[in-house]
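Run folding on both entries below.
>entry_1
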Amino acid sequence: MPYSAKPRKLRLAPTPESASLRLLGTSWLSDRSLLCVVSHGAEVARFDTARLLREDFATELHVVSRRHPRDEREGGAGGASSLVHLRGDRAVRDGRAFGLNLSAGAGSWRIDARSVAKAATDLRSLIRNQFTNLQAAERAEVVRFLATSNGASGDPADQLRESRSLHVVREMLRERLPRCELSASKLEGLSVEAMVAVSESSFYVEGWICDVESAAVRLTAVSPEGTRVELISQLFRYDRPDVQAFFKPTIGDQATAKCGFIGYFQLDAPSRLPNGWLVEMETAAGTVMETAAPPLIASDDLIASDDRIRAKLLGDLVHDSEDQELRRVHISPALAVVQSERAARIMVERVASFGQEPPDPAVSIVVPLYGRIDLMEHQVVQFAGDPDLRRAELIYVLDSPELKEELVAKAERLFRLYGVPYRILILSENAGFSLANNIAASCARGQLLLLLNSDVLPKERGWLSRMVAFYESLEEPGAVGPMLLYEDDSLQHAGLYFERPTEARTWTNEHYFKGLHSELPAANVARQVPAVTAACLMVDADLFHAVGGLSGGYVQGDYEDSDLCMRLWKAGRKNWYLPQVRLYHLEAQSYPSKAREMNRQYNRWLFNETWSDVIEEINWVFAPPVSITSDRRERPRKARQKVPVDHTVGVAETASEPVEMWRQR
């Protein structure tokens, strides 16, 4: 049936209720969002529900309303008016006529299509006619109301249109303060040097204040949509020698220490525009000024944006104070949001399977590939001659999606050459070490998980069955890690312990016997250890998921494995080192060392913040062997001369029978 826009089909017979409400003006903020100004009886405080009525459909609208500031000032004698912000769950603006139904308590009012059409106007005209004659505080309240009723869900394009409309409202109604003009001859100054969009409602600001003559008592960030947040009480202040030098001709040696500021803050409503941020300052003497912030450190390229944000936040660690306030109050919460936002976006974009995987694998091997996909070939070559690997599920997870076509072609070629069956998970974007492992683990079918770096290569066949047999022989096992060697057969890993160097404030990860000879008797004892590295770590799959997998709070680099082992320890499990399995680890070949070093400091701090008390307890139980000294933490250039030692020294009981039983599965 063709649509008819005749208003009589939507009109309601006049009633006392409908006669007491009149639509003064309405304008679209976006395809889903409508701003209305209505006059009504003084008894109406706010509207509760709303419906949009068209001939072809009717839909519920989310409604937020407040009394018009003018009526609040005048007391609403004889009547009142309200701002009503309506939002639909889908686009409702398509040029066709519609009516509205508004409800407040027991009252209900119907506005017909003709009345809606008559009141419709463009946004600027509505704001100009209804609000520009208000006092400054009242205009600010209108801006605040609209900004805080901004929707947090829906179509991103529509949300962006609404944010642009709200920016128009802010610019028409806000009180403009004097712009701060930076000059060395003045005793006051304000500059915002960076504004970072951590998420749509979380932001990070950096700049400086010169308030020598009169201290700043208010510093307010104003979003492009008009949301305001006070910063002065939550800023981290630090020295800025460059700013001191700039003002020295005027202020001489007067104190300008700690004029730099950094702050992480959250808004009551989302902000989506890259431009338009303002920061206002007021001093104790009553001087007010404002300055525009530079464009947000963010972009449509979410991956590049995340990388820039992390680099910015981690780079600011150099400004931290002795009490570590900057990282604890500002950088860590901001990084946590960046990490969780990315985790929420990541998905498995594509799955490619090569060969026939075992129907019921006892163990699933998870190998993240980041950057250097050539390492996969070196592993597959070693796996090809080992029957154990054909009974295991092998999952490669690509954490560099830009290499997906190259990897799929390589994987197909490697399967034809070596016949090792495996599956490849291609992520939608770079997830980081923890999340890549967690995603692959969630797709694994084995009862046991083996987390394996792409730069770890087996020294001999049968290593996997020995690890499985050892794990299954233990009572209450947590994680099990093997002996890892450098390419010259010196020790890289024989379990992890935690050490606090002299005069240091934080615990660090240390490898037992690192750089020493692999035949060192003490290194050839299967034993409990505080932790093992995730370069090669076996754990029960259900247990792994029960403790939350690898933590996503760490920036890729270090300490995710130690954190996992701490959670296993708290769950009552024991972590073990198994020297009877030996693999080579080309340590960090799959991860650029420069990037790794940038993240290590933050991860170490986060690990200590989380586990410092537990580490004290664990280190009492697992004291480092007396052969470990502080000057042996670095790997020597050459392994010491080999000493003939019986390989069976200290071997835990792992009879061949359970190994053969596993191989027959």
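>entry_2
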Amino acid sequence: MVHGYRTETPTGLGGVNPVRNGGWRDRARTYALLPLRVFLGITFVYAGLDKLTDSAFLHASGAGSIGELMHSVRDSAAIPALVDLALKNPSGFGYAIALGELAVGIGTLLGLFGRLAALGGALISLSLWLTVSWQTTPYYYGNDLAYLMAWLPLVLAGSSVFSADALLARRRRTL
């Protein structure tokens, strides 16, 4: 017998009713950016901590220092003026990059100000692409452009699930 209405169906994967809750495709779409968010968050936290704990990186000169790196890419950068700005205070620039990566990574992992954190990650990746990895040939060997593109969906979509932003939004709705 065919009914003109939908009856309750057994629960699907994970105890969720796929009919009542929009189906598995809608559910998958909800969580689609979560792996990217976790990957970028962990990577940027690691990158920031790695720079802060590297004894050579934060120096103005010497092997492995931010100053040496900036001097080596100055003539091949897409925007040499950006490198010149970093060369005015290489140690300060190194701290700014490291702390920026750390803040972006933590914000991304927690989903706290998710779009702002993703925008920060995109701007860091853009600045690194236009300076440090600009001379990489072919362009797809450099990783900074890929990181820039990876941040853009998070800039557009924000942190929807398992995030402080979602928790704060729910609290605002109940007040």
